[in-house]
């Protein structure tokens, strides 16, 4: 067992998932940009329990989880190896603290033998605001979906000053 960033993962089972001819054509999906991000669900397969910070047995048995050797013992060590095609993916990012997750629901057609990275960042506003109220609003959180090194989709969550809440909305590139 490996304990990393409040995340309990059975590395032995995940580390020894065999590569087959079928899995060599899989799409690889990574997440980055925050101290911690987690794959919550892939289609109907639950991956990470948000309360217990444990990987579900169902995800291990589905053999979609992989470990980045260079990240073992660090954050974001898990990534997905999934068949090509259209899939739904739910991710949790923790941009501020382990207590507050930002969730992104993504439906995308993943290509075979292609790497994807979902990278969260804060989109810094470079324009000077005309009012103190506008200047005090936090910059929006954004997640770029990168295919290899190229950003192919962008989702941003603007801050709503009235409710404090917002939803991730796809932006035009």
Quick recap of the structure?
This protein has 173 residues and is mostly beta strands. It has three helices and 15 strands.
Features:
173 residues; mainly beta; seven-stranded mixed β-sheet; four-stranded antiparallel β-sheet; 9% helix; globular; disordered N terminus
What can you see in these coordinates?
Helix content is 9%, strand content 47%. With 173 residues, the protein is mainly β. The strands form 4 sheets. Strands 8-9-3-12-13-14-15 form a 7-stranded mixed sheet. A 4-stranded antiparallel sheet has the order 5-4-10-11. A two-stranded antiparallel sheet has the order 1-2. The radius of gyration is 17 Å and the shape is globular. Mean pLDDT is 83; it is low at 1-8.
Between the first and last Cα atoms, what is the distance in angstroms? Answer: 42 Å
Which strand order do you get reading across the main beta sheet?
8-9-3-12-13-14-15
Question: Helix- and strand-based class?
Answer: mainly beta
* Helix coverage percent: under 10%
How many H/I helical runs? 3
Strand residue content: over 45%
Total E-strand runs: 15
């Amino acid at each position: 067992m490996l304990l990393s960033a409040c995340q309990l993962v059975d590395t032995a089972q995940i580390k020894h998932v065999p590569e087959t001819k079928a899995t060599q054509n899989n799409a690889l999906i990574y997440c980055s940009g925050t101290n911690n991000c987690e794959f919550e669900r892939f289609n109907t397969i639950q991956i990470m329990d948000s309360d217990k910070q444990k990987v579900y047995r169902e995800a291990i048995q589905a053999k979609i989880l992989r470990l980045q050797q260079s990240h073992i013992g660090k954050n974001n060590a898990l990534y997905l190896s999934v068949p090509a095609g259209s899939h739904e993916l739910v991710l949790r990012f923790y941009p501020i603290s382990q207590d507050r997750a930002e969730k992104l629901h993504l439906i995308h057609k993943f290509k075979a033998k292609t790497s994807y990275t979902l990278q969260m960042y804060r989109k810094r506003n470079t324009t000077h605001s005309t009012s103190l109220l506008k200047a005090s609003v936090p910059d929006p959180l954004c997640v770029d979906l990168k295919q290899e090194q190229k950003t192919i989709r962008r989702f941003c969550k603007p801050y709503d000053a009235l409710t404090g809440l917002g939803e991730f909305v796809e932006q035009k590139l």
